[in-house]
Design goal:
Chain A is mostly helical. Chain A has helices spanning 3-13, 19-30, 33-45, 51-62, 71-89, 119-124, 130-160, 163-192, 199-206, 212-240, 244-254, 256-280, 288-291, 296-307, 312-315, 322-346; strands at 109-112, 115-118. In chain B, a hairpin with a 2-residue loop joins strand 5 and strand 6. Chain B has helices at 16-22, 27-35, 37-46, 48-59, 64-75, 91-101, 107-114, 117-124, 127-130, 132-147, 149-161, 176-185, 189-199, 201-208, 212-232, and strands spanning 6-8, 11-13, 81-83, 86-88, 166-168, 171-173. The chains are: A mainly alpha (350), B mainly alpha (238). At the A-B interface, helix 1, helix 2, helix 3 and helix 5 of A face helix 12, helix 13 and helix 15 of B.
Chain lengths: 350, 238
């Protein structure tokens, strides 16, 4: 950091007006070597939808030069750019528990005895004792775990704090699911009824029954059911598609314990694997995919956590749209018509 | 006492007090006299306790100027602050002198904290009782000196000078804001910045005025950025 930058920062902190310098500094930063390097790296990172890349890109996209109003803001932005640049440079210094790179565990770079070497180099280096390697690997593993806690467990735990709101939403979701299931069930019943070997029933379907009342009621039922199907499909597409994210949350919540257990088990298994290979002095030719905690399920969950602030469903109680009541009303009409047909049928066609 | 004759820098002194009063002017020569067998024998005859104290002082591995400073107050406790050619009639005068050189540092004035000379002087002249608060603050600065020499040194200047003003190139400023507003307007902000930040002068002033939060935030930011720059090894294009 240049000395004059320090003076300007100090001026800013002491409420001395230095805004006249700010535009020049922002422009300098925007065209600086470090920022341009970061931009180039981000383009590369966008090619792979890895968890680590997404995290770096997210941090990069938050940078907004137009929001810099003070020198403190400026220096914070500069620090963030430096930090992102640093992350980009650590391309091979990845956390195997959080990575999706197509490489083997043995190729992952680690800081070891003041140098950056791969896991395999460390394992096969006979100059170091097993105890020394175990101590170093323990440090490395603990750092990995720390990162897992920050990037995976903490947001998840934070997410679960909204459980009360989600509980309410789950009830709503259950009601809607029950209604839609009933609609499907009603359709199935109407379809399979003529399969029963009951002559009168088949006569209703073929329209050869002599009671006009039953026939009219039956046709009304069919029309209402058809209408209900149409309205339900429309409702599902328009409203429930928007609700899909919430359903994911619901499903993720249900497997809350299993996710936590999975994180812990996989982390411990990874550590045991490292220790075993140190003991056996064997290279780690295992694909990263096998030890990584990031799979499709986890990515969905992380995606959910990432966008949670944008989801009204997770922020407040989900409000059932008015259209839902139309579906309910038609459903009850269909139900009424159905029972009427049954009653008429059982009552000897009146 | 009347039997004493000490020849010091071409002058004859007939009392220890007179000799002590002028020791600060020529410290090398004063030190030579102090450790001479002839002087020590005279001292032994006059005052055995004083001889023991001076002999003990000479035995301790101590910096020469600081040793002369301490010895002069043992020989004559009723003296104003005198050190290596400087003579100050008050603490404020010492503070003013420190600030008058700022942002440069006078290596001899720095010794007041480095070798705990000022607190020694205060103890010998009973200022630790007369001005206990000031004494405690100087003691604290002696400890701070071990962490940040320059900052503690300038803080001593502000503490002793006591006006709450900052001096720069002969000008006085009554607040950090006024001072920095003047500094940033200057054509050569780079020169100002390098001397001001490196010397710690401005931070000493801010600390003296209790701008602790601002300093803490500033230092955190600077440390963070410099650490990341070092790691990146890729400085911003100017």
């Amino acid at each position: 950091m240049r000395e004059e930058d320090k003076v300007l920062l100090l001026c800013d902190l002491l409420k001395v007006d230095v805004t006249a310098y700010l535009d020049r500094y922002i422009e300098e930063l925007r065209t600086s070597k470090i920022y341009l390097q970061v931009c180039a790296q981000i383009i590369k990172l966008r090619k792979h939808d890895y968890f680590r890349n997404i995290e770096i890109i997210r941090r990069f996209e938050v940078i907004d030069f137009s929001k810099i109003k003070t020198f403190l803001d400026f220096e914070k932005t500069y620090a963030e750019i430096l930090d992102i640049a640093l992350e980009c440079q650590k391309e091979k210094m990845i956390n195997p528990l959080l990575s999706e790179e197509k490489m083997t565990l043995g190729e992952v770079m680690i800081p070891f005895d003041g140098r950056d070497i791969t896991f395999n180099d460390m394992l096969l280096d006979e100059r170091y004792t097993k105890t020394y390697k175990i101590n170093q690997v323990k440090e490395i593993y603990l750092n990995y775990r720390k990162e897992v806690k920050t990037l995976l467990i903490s947001p998840f735990v934070e997410f679960l704090r909204k459980e009360d709101v989600i509980d309410e939403n789950i009830k709503e979701k259950s009601t809607i699911t029950a209604l839609l299931s009933s609609v499907i069930l009603a359709n199935i019943i109407i379809i399979i009824l003529p399969l029963f070997p009951v002559t009168t029933l088949r006569n209703i379907y073929s329209g050869t029954i002599d009671s006009e009342v039953v026939m009219v009621t039956f046709y009304v039922l069919i029309v209402i059911l058809f209408l209900l199907d149409l309205v339900s499909i429309f409702f599902y597409n328009v409203y429930l598609n928007k609700f899909r994210i919430f359903i994911r949350a619901y499903n993720s919540l249900r497997s809350e314990k299993s996710i936590m257990v999975k994180i812990n088990n996989k982390s411990e298994a990874f550590y045991s694997l490292l220790l075993r290979h140190i003991d056996e002095i064997k290279p780690l030719n295992i694909p990263l995919k096998k030890v990584s905690l990031i799979d499709v399920e986890m990515k969905n969950l992380l995606y959910l956590i990432e966008i949670k602030d944008k989801l009204p469903y997770l922020q407040e109680k989900w409000k059932v749209p008015h259209f839902f009541y139309v579906v309910c009303a038609i459903f009850y009409l269909a139900l009424l018509a159905f029972f009427l047909v049954i009653m008429l049928f059982l009552g000897g066609h009146l | 006492m009347n039997e004493i004759t000490i020849k010091f820098h071409g002058q004859i002194y007939y009392s220890l007090e007179d000799f002590a009063r002028n020791m600060y002017l020529y410290t090398d020569e004063a030190f030579t006299i102090l450790k001479s067998q002839k002087f020590l024998k005279i001292l032994y005859k006059i005052n055995q306790n004083l001889y023991n104290t001076i002999a003990e002082l000479l035995r301790t591995p101590f910096q020469q100027d600081a040793l002369v400073f301490k010895a002069q107050y043992l020989l004559n406790p009723l003296m104003v602050i005198s050190y290596h050619g400087y003579r100050f009639n008050s603490f404020q005068a010492l503070g003013k002198k420190i600030l008058s050189f700022a942002p440069s540092i006078d290596i001899y004035l720095k010794d007041f904290l480095k070798y705990h000379l000022l607190t020694f002087y205060m103890e010998k002249t009973k200022y630790d009782f007369k001005e206990p608060k000031l004494y405690q603050e100087v003691k604290k600065l002696e400890e701070e000196f071990l962490i940040n020499e320059n900052r503690a040194y300038f803080k001593l200047g502000f503490l002793l000078e006591g006006s709450g003003q900052i001096f720069y190139h002969g000008k006085k400023f009554s607040s950090p804001q006024e001072f920095l507003s003047h500094a940033k307007e200057g054509v050569n902000i780079i020169d100002f910045a390098s001397s001001m930040v490196k010397s710690q002068y401005i931070f000493a002033y801010l600390e003296y005025l209790h701008y602790d939060q601002e300093i803490s935030l500033f230092e955190t930011m600077v440390h963070l950025i410099e650490q990341k720059e070092k790691e990146n090894d890729n400085l911003r294009k100017v």
